[in-house]
Amino acid sequence: MRKIFISFFIFINILYSDTILINEATDIHIDEFNLEYFIDETSNINFQNIKKENFSKTINKNTFGNIRTTWYRFDIKNNTNKKLNLFFNDSLAYINMKTEIYELHGKKLLNKFTFDKNKLTEGKNPKDTNLIYPFELSSNQTKTIYIMHYSPVYQFFNFTISDIANTIVESSYNHIFDIFVIGMILALAIYNILLFINSKQIEYLSYTLFLMSGSIWIFVSSGSLMIFGILGQEGFKLLNIILLLPIFTVFFLKSIFDTTKKENFYLNSVIIILILNLIVAFFDTFLSLKLASYTVSYSIIVSISVAISQHLNENPIAKIFIVAHVSYIISVIISNLFFLGFLPFHFLTLNSDNFGLVIESILFAYLISYRIKLLQYESISKDKEILIQTEIANKDFLTNAYNRRFFFDASQAIISRAKRNNYSLAIATIDIDHFKVVNDTYGHDAGDEAIKEVVKILNIQLRDSDLFARFGGEEFCIIIENISQEETLLIFEKIRLAFQDNVIQYNDLSISYTVSIGISYGFNNSINEMILTSDKALYNAKSNGRNQIQLIQI
pTM, whole model, 2 decimals? Predict the structure, then answer.
């Protein structure tokens, strides 16, 4: 019972103690612990005086908002019987312009480490975006660690304590999400630039520029410039790259919408204002970043307003743009609330703007594909409309057979083939015998049915490759290529007999009629000359008693 009570007392003591206790000598990775902080509103308190201040309690992952200088401290004790080599990992050190670390045993200062981005020291600067401070703990030894952060913008932090193995693992995965996002966006960018090169469609280029500006911003904002030694004011100035994102968003918007003159005016004003904001960055970085909050807000208002205007004008892709851009805006709002200290430290709040950019990029990709699909559909619809109009222009309204104009246009290719391949043509003119009697006896509607019947019989008797057209009234013209004279006479005799034996049933009436056929056979470069010859042959057929075939060889 006494052992249980002692164990419970130790557990409670550990639970509520601010001292970090290490009870195992292996696999050390402490990512949740209590510490204390003090906000130095003057940014002038030195280490000797900071020890006299009253610190408040917090945890190792937190955000304090728009604060310049903050001090942190924690006690750590080695409860094992072995000497430990430990590493304090400040994984978000890249946001700070200056970091100081003080290592104490009791009241004795053992070591001081300073990292100042404006005062680089060769060989002593971090090679990554995080800051790793090594220290030792002897068996049963307790040390106090003080950390000072000076940031020109926001205070948020993520501290861990590990052994060498876990430190290596943590450093390896420190920016795995940023790398994944940048890799995905760059893959999209490469794919779309290839689409632009192939299609020359400007929306692919504007989307690629949007993606590139987004990936550059993630690279810069994640502190990766530290890897290349770009630090201090030089690195801080590059934060203005964020202005490229709204600039290319506007370019993208202009490339996908048919914007009005008024909409173009406001969109162009956004581009001009943002470019001027970028120019200011070369002279005053802090002023430029302050202005950015206004210029970027203006660009968001204009972009959303134009998209809403397009939606009200029933542009089908405007809704996708609105959803995509609002998603990003919400993610930026969440991110800013985190930076300002209104939302707790979490993976989602820390990377909210990255999530928003990924969602917006994917939705923009969908928007482009949907727009291209709509354009293709419109193009196909226009082509179909042209084909329909062409078909209407080439067809006879009563019989739906080809008309005289189409016959003359199409016969030119047939004449060229016959000349090139040295074969004969047969051109026949067919006319209904005593058509006036049909009209007078049965009426004009019955006469129309008789004319339609000609088309039905010719469609049955002729080959698909043969061409015929209604020339007017009850007269039709036929052209057959690459055929002998004997075959010609056989085909047209079958046609003549088909009319002779045919009876039309119309309104309880039985109507029958015959046709006369005149044929021009051979070859002539002039289709008009061959038709004139077939007309002469038709005249001969009519003169000789009708219901017969007459052929004139050219």
Answer: 0.69
